[in-house]
């Protein structure tokens, strides 16, 4: 694992954008695995800025997002499709027909998941998978559980994740209770993984994930078994790692 220790969110965003840019510059046809949530927003802003300056070209890039709420259409402003459009895709020259997000409107969970696994396979797998991390160690919507679930699946979101996501909705009741997410094998099959962690709320999860045992109760801990992981974490997120003498 390569760990970049940065001061704050601004530095984290710039470093993450640098790594994503490097991938796109080195391989214009790259398949990017993308994430939503608060953490990557700054990196996406930075990528847009560099694109506008003429330093980046997304015209040949394909993207596959980690997850989507079940029951939300791409037009709904809480959907992850909408998030990706407004935070990145609408502002760069990516071909939207090559940007993939699980189909939240597909009610048949098995069909939705099988379709998404087929998409990932058809694009030839993921070159760089961007990840945030939940305060409970989740990646994508792979929540702590009894086993690592390999492929795209439908999950019932945990209370803590619903509460964490409530900030994006008018009320807690409106937060969807299910989501489609890539599974652990989908994520682990990416050639390279870039995990971003910012803020105190991630400090324990970050320590448990990279310095604790590899267990499904801490989904991100499986990344210890991946041979090309880059972590960018700011001082606040690294607090527990430092206190425990891991760094
Ligand atoms: C987002 C995703 C989630 C988030 C995680 C952290 O597509 O799959 O695993 O990365 O919940 O969210 P933030 O960045 O909002 O703290």
Write up what this structure looks like.
This protein is an alpha/beta fold. The protein has a single domain (2-189), classed as Rossmann fold (3-Layer(aba) Sandwich), CATH 3.40.50.1360. The protein is built from eight helices and ten strands. It has helices spanning 9-26, 41-52, 80-87, 109-122, 159-165, 184-188, 203-211, 239-243, and strands at residues 2-6, 31-34, 62-65, 67-69, 99-100, 128-131, 153-156, 178-181, 192-197, 229-234. Strands 1-10-9-6-2-3-5 form a seven-stranded parallel sheet, sandwiched between helices. Strands 4-8-7 form a three-stranded antiparallel sheet, with helices on one face. It is globular and about 45 Å long. The mean pLDDT is 96. Fructose -6-phosphate is lined by residues 35-39, 66-67, 132-134, 138-141. Residues 35-39, 66-67, 132-134, 138-141 line the site of fructose -6-phosphate (F6R).
Chart the SSEs and their pairings:
Blueprint: E1 2-6, H1 9-26, E2 31-34, H2 41-52, E3 62-65, E4 67-69, H3 80-87, E5 99-100, H4 109-122, E6 128-131, E7 153-156, H5 159-165, E8 178-181, H6 184-188, E9 192-197, H7 203-211, E10 229-234, H8 239-243
Parallel strand pairs: 1-10, 2-3, 2-6, 3-5, 6-9, 9-10
Antiparallel strand pairs: 4-8, 7-8
Helix pairs in contact: 1-2
The structure holds fructose -6-phosphate (F6R).
Fructose -6-phosphate is lined by residues 35-39, 66-67, 132-134, 138-141.
């Amino acid at each position: 694992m390569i760990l970049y220790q940065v001061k704050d969110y601004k530095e984290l965003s710039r470093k993450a954008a640098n790594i994503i840019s490097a991938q796109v510059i080195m391989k214009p046809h790259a398949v990017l695995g993308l994430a939503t949530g608060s953490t990557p927003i700054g990196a996406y802003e930075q990528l847009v800025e560099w694109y506008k300056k003429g330093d980046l070209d997304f015209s040949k890039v394909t993207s596959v997002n980690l997850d989507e709420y079940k029951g939300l259409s791409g037009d709904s402003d809480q959907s992850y499709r909408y998030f990706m459009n407004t935070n990145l895709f609408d502002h760069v020259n990516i071909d939207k027909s090559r940007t993939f997000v699980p189909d939240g409107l597909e009610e048949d969970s098995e069909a939705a998941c099988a379709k998404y696994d087929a998409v990932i396979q058809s694009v030839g797998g993921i070159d760089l998978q961007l990840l945030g991390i939940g305060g409970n160690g989740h990646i994508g919507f792979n929540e702590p559980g009894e086993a690592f679930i390999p492929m795209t699946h439908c999950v019932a979101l945990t209370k803590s994740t619903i509460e964490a996501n409530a900030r994006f909705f008018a009320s807690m009741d409106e937060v969807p209770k299910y989501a489609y997410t890539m599974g652990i094998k989908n994520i682990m099959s990416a050639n390279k993984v870039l995990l971003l962690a910012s803020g105190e709320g991630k400090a324990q999860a970050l320590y448990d994930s990279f310095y604790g045992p590899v267990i499904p109760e801490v989904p991100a801990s499986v990344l210890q078994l991946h041979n090309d992981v880059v972590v960018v974490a700011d001082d606040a997120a690294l607090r527990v790692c430092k206190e425990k003498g891991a760094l």
